[in-house]
Amino acid sequence: MQSEPVITPSAYKHGIVEDDILHAFRNPLFVHPGAEGFTMIAGPARDASMLEIGYITSDQFQALIIHAMLARTKYLR
What we know:
With 77 residues, the chain is mainly beta. It is built from 1 helix and 5 strands. The protein has a 5-stranded mixed β-sheet. A hairpin with a 5-residue loop joins strand 2 and strand 3.
């Protein structure tokens, strides 16, 4: 079983709350793998607004969520 992700302080920079970050992370609609293990996903917050969530995977295979904000158009495809 995969462990719970860790939300780093930088993920709160845009005012998105923990429950919405986790909801979007657990319910991705779009996944955009990036360089050096960084992945950006787009998923719904609890109110169905779309968020972009950026994370990296630690050496222990645990997701470290480092970015969260309202989704930009480029991540909604």
